[in-house]
């Protein structure tokens, strides 16, 4: 049974990705379309899923290098199975979980002294008197992992 083939224009229309971006993904080794007798790119349905995965992963802040690493774990020349995608999901899920923890911590700590040296909140006078956090280095020391009780 022959697989359905899609032109680059059809893939662009289906994914919402510009034709130039699809060509870039190919040059970057993220997708591997076949060529027809006229040397035009021919895509399979699985390529649409790969491109959709790239879009979502980029929106989540993953680099193209990270995305390529994950896509390289998929089998070439066969449509990835549900099990293949679950493997990627678990790997990215660990990173996403770590980001959730970091963002939750950030949200909770932003209401208090972050050790940046501005000393504009009442809490800063208690946690960072005379900007003792500056002795640990530049930036928001308490968001970067230093503890108020250890500065000084």
TrEMBL record:
Protein name: Redox-sensitive transcriptional activator SoxR
Database matches in InterPro entries: DNA-bd_dom_put_sf, MerR-type_HTH_dom, MerR_fam, Redox-sen_tscrpt-act_SoxR
Annotated PANTHER family: REDOX-CYCLING DRUG-SENSING TRANSCRIPTIONAL ACTIVATOR SOXR, REDOX-SENSITIVE TRANSCRIPTIONAL ACTIVATOR SOXR
Pfam family, one: MerR_1
Keyword Isomerase: no
Gene encoding the protein: soxR
KW Iron (keyword) present: yes
Domain HTH merR-type: 5-73
Keywords, comma-separated and alphabetical: 2Fe-2S, DNA-binding, Iron, Iron-sulfur, Metal-binding
